[in-house]
């Protein structure tokens, strides 16, 4: 259990994927360039390569956590996290295909989730 004050610290926004590509040498990572309504797009890495082709993500909107501490993976800095649901946990590993969360209608990049 957490307090509402703890939850309120999490910044969740809608972002539009401007570019997506595989990370060279990585089995799981995709590098996303995301418009979050800020001065410049953010680079966000995600371990969804097994399930999604980069070109299928471009132009789509998803939900992102935007105030996480930056993390370096495969020599690249990630400045956020795409939010996904577990699509089918009965695959034996306890985790299924991640399903990125997205708005039901297009909204301005940077719209806050509240």
From TrEMBL:
GO terms for biological process: translation. Keywords: Aminoacyl-tRNA synthetase, ATP-binding, Cytoplasm, Ligase, Nucleotide-binding, Protein biosynthesis, RNA-binding, tRNA-binding. It catalyses: tRNA(Met) + L-methionine + ATP = L-methionyl-tRNA(Met) + AMP + diphosphate. Its EC number is 6.1.1.10. Pfam families: tRNA_bind. Signal peptide: none annotated. It is found in: Cytoplasm. Residues 85-114 are annotated as: Disordered. Residues 6-114 form the TRNA-binding domain. InterPro entries: NA-bd_OB-fold (IPR012340), tRNA-bd_dom (IPR002547), Tyrosine-tRNA_ligase_regulator (IPR051270). It comes from the Bacteria. One of its GO terms (cellular component) is cytoplasm. The keyword Nucleotide-binding applies. One of its GO terms (molecular function) is methionine-tRNA ligase activity. Homodimer. Is required not only for elongation of protein synthesis but also for the initiation of all mRNA translation through initiator tRNA(fMet) aminoacylation. This is Methionine--tRNA ligase. It comes from Candidatus Daviesbacteria bacterium GW2011_GWC2_40_12.
């Amino acid at each position: 259990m957490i307090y509402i004050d703890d939850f309120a610290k999490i910044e969740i926004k809608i972002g539009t994927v401007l570019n997506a590509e595989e990370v060279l040498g990585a089995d799981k990572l995709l590098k996303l360039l995301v418009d979050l309504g800020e001065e410049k797009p953010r680079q966000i890495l995600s371990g969804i390569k097994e399930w999604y082709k980069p070109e299928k993500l471009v132009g789509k909107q998803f939900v992102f956590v935007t105030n996480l501490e930056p993390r370096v993976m495969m020599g690249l800095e990630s400045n956020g996290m795409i939010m996904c649901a577990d699509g089918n946990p009965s695959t034996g590993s306890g985790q299924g295909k991640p399903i990125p969360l997205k708005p039901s209608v297009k909204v301005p990049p940077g719209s806050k989730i509240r």
